[in-house]
Amino acid sequence: MNFHLPDSSPIRRFFGWFPEILKLSRVRLQTQVRLLGLAVLVGIVAGVGAIGFYLATRAVEHYALGVLVGYHAEPHPGGEPAISWPETPEHSFYPWLLLIVPTVGGLLSGVLVFTMAPEAEGHGTDSVIAAYHRGQGHIRTRVPLVKTVASALTIGTGGSGGREGPIAQIGAGFGSLLGGALRLRPAERRVLMAAGMGAGIAAVFRAPLAGTIFAAEVLYRSPEFESEVIIPAGFASVVSYCVFGAYSGWNPIFTIPSLAFTNPWQLGPYLLLAVFMALLAMLYTRCFYGLKSLFGRLPMRPHFRPMLGAFLTGLVGLLLYTLMGNRQEVLAVLAFGYSAIQDAMTLDTGASAILLLTIALGKIVTTSLTIGSGGSGGVFGPSMVIGGCGGGSLGILIHNAFPGLVPHPASFVIVGMAGFFAAAAKTPFSTLIIVSEMTGGYHLLLPSLWVCAIAFILSDQQSIYSSQVEGRSRSPAHQGDFVREVLAEICVKDFLSPRDRMLVLHPEDSLATILSRLSTASIPALPVVDPEDRLLGVVNLDEVLLASQLPSLTTLVLAEDLMRGDIQPLTPSDTLDRALELFVENDLLVLPVVNDSEQRRVVGSVRRFEIAGAYVRRLHAPMALPVKGRI
User: Fold this and answer.
1) Cys-Cys link to 240, which of 181, 199, 452, 513 (CB 3.0-4.6 A)?
2) How far is the C-alpha of 547 from the C-alpha of 517, rounded, in Å?
3) Looking at residue 457, what is its pLDDT?
4) Quick check: 172 and 136 in contact, CB under 8 A?
């Protein structure tokens, strides 16, 4: 016996959704699978590049600062892998070499960058942001390679910079290369490039979630996200984190004591921290771009400016070392400086607030000198040192006065790192996450959110990333999207003129008649119609001029010989964004308008440049009626 459910059965109606759901899922998967697959490849390259760059910088640092100068930055962050170097003879610390070694590194870096890839100067993340907004996702293939070598030379010899800029440019550069090789659309190429930037951050800081959010957030100064970047960046970040973690291990970079937020009254001291971080961030950005402008005005070739910046960086380090009683801890103002953060997180409450504040202010100056002069390196790493040491100095002071509100100054080190970069880079959410992932300090998420939000609000418009734009509406990458949104509100029928004011051609019209009517109409194309005004085709001025150059054919050529019959016309109900598409597809500056797609009776025409006028009128008078006139 066969059992049959009626069509109105609830069970049949329920399971009837399944084919549609599967169809929609398949279409969505097909449109995403290629981009996500490429994002995985970008993540692999970013992870491998992070390993290579980490080893390169540590090697240059070991031999340049450790072997030559005798300076060993200790303690290294607790989660960084130990590297066994060949045995080298031990010798005393020679502080005067801090004037020579960074200078040589700056010279080599400057000559390399400005000879082979000038766009690799400065902090690489800003170059990636600029390529996203204004370069359609294009990064020259040589840029990541030059950036890697130049940054290793700059930072390893004592220049103040971070790892994230070069790593971001390595991942972004491969994403751009892949998109160009496969001839992807500019939008897809931009997404792959941003995903590579996030993957680089995820690998070098062991922060996959933060890398994902950072790639979508850092593009804008306002609290906007590039939503289409998040999923591909997530795939790339997970893969790059796994690749780098397989080499370095899975622990957070920094080792911290047991910290927690247990008292709502602690939000008061954290409010003071947020204000302090906002002020410190404003000092940082102004010092950075002030010195960058000053170096740009120097009467010397750009190749040698990083050398001068590196020399002044070493000089600042040497002066602080002398003024602070020959304490090597203050030399965290050079190179990475992560030892100062690790030290501040584990020192007892009797630590010197003056020492930490000196490192924070000194790091602002040395980073501005190194990167502002054209040296190669990132600004995120130094920002962690500035924020962590600045926050730690304030934490020590408040702890000494109110130990119940600040049980351990290390909490101010961690939250200060987050708040400072949120204000300096306008990235409150990704910074909140990245600091938590770098330290494993998830118990401080609430005060970190409090400080990041307040510091971001109190900060001014100037960002450490000058290529950021205010929002999507200001990004050249999205100008077309907003034009279409405005034009989608206007219909072609709003521009039609009375039928008796429109000039048309008929198939039997001669070349002389065509030239006469084109001259009278002052437009580069006219529709060809039958006796019932149905569209047959369009005669374009280019074909008419070509035919007129052959006098022997002047009396023989008719409109039907010159017209293009494959034209897809507009209808009065079409919106102007649809008109914009058809102008491109038909390759015409004027399109005929027909009453409908079946009868195709010509009722008017639209000129392409009038769309720009409609767009401007709608922007300046959004509530006004469209201005009618002859189109």
Assistant:
1) 199
2) 16
3) 93
4) no
Helix (H) or strand (E) holding 239: helix 227-248
Distance CA 337, CA 571 (A): 66
Neighbours of 310 (CB within 10 A): 34
The DSSP code sequence of 43-108 is HHHHHHHHHHHHHHHHHHHIIIIIIII-----SPPTTSPP--PPP-------GGGGGTHHHHHHHH
422 touches 432 (CB < 8 A): yes
- Cβ neighbours of residue 9 closer than 8 Å, sequence gap 6 or more: none
pLDDT at 599: 84
Rounded Cα distance between 378 and 53, Å, is: 13
Q: What's the rounded Cα separation, in Å, for the pair 277 and 395?
A: 12
- Least Cα distance to 362 among 394, 329, 404 occurs for 329
Q: What are the helix and strand counts (H, E) for the chain?
A: 23, 4
194/191 Cα distance (integer angstroms) = 5
Mean predicted confidence (pLDDT) in 185-200: 87
399 neighbors 193 (Cβ within 8 angstroms): no
Q: What is the mean pLDDT of the chain?
A: 82
Convert the pLDDT of each residue in 521-564 to its tens digit. Answer: 777 888 898 888 888 888 888 778 777 777 766 677 888 888 88
Q: Return the bridge partners of 604, or none.
A: 593
Find out whether 499 and 551 touch, Cβ atoms under 8 Å. Answer: no
Neighbours of 256 (CB within 10 A): 22
For the CA atoms of 574, 578, 583, 585, the dihedral, rounded to the nearest 10 degrees, stands at -120
Q: Is 529 within 8 Å of 600 (Cβ atoms)?
A: no
**447-467 CB burial, b ≥16 within 10 A, e <16:** bbbbbbbbbbebbeebbbbeb
| Residue 631 pLDDT grade (very low, low, confident, very high; cuts 50, 70, 90) | very low
β-strands 590-594, 535-540 pairing: unpaired
Handedness of CA 465, 466, 472, 477 (dihedral sign): negative
Distance, CA of 102 to CA of 308 (rounded, Å): 10
Please give the C-alpha separations between residue 184 and each of 3, 127, 134, 141, 550, in angstroms, as whole numbers. Answer: 52, 21, 17, 16, 43
In the predicted structure, residue 15 carries a pLDDT above the cut 60: no
What three-state secondary structure class fits 627? coil
As a whole number of angstroms, the distance between CA 397 and CA 393 comes to 6
Burial status of residue 332 (CB atoms within 10 A of its CB: 0-12, 13-18, 19 or more): buried
Residue ranges and CATH numbers for the domains of the chain are: 30-82+89-478 (1.10.3080.10), 488-620 (3.10.580.10)
Highest average pLDDT, of 385-394, 441-450, 566-575, comes from 385-394
Tokens, residue 593:
């308008």
**pLDDT score, position 325:** 84
Angstrom distance (rounded) from CA 432 to CA 456 = 11
Task: Tell me if 168 sits within 8 A of 139, measured CB to CB.
Answer: no
| Cβ-based neighbour number of residue 614 at 10 Å | 21
Quote the CA–CA distance of 402 and 239 in Å, as a whole number: 45
- Rounded CA-CA distance 613/220 in Å is 29
394: which residues sit within 8 A by CB, 6+ positions away?
Answer: 272, 273, 276, 353, 412, 416
What average pLDDT does this structure show over 334-356?
Answer: 78
Euclidean distance between CA atoms 112 and 121, whole angstroms = 10
Cross-strand partners of 359: none
By C-alpha distance, which of 279, 463, 294, 430 is closest to 357?
279
Per the CB < 8 A criterion, the answer to whether 430 and 225 are in contact is no
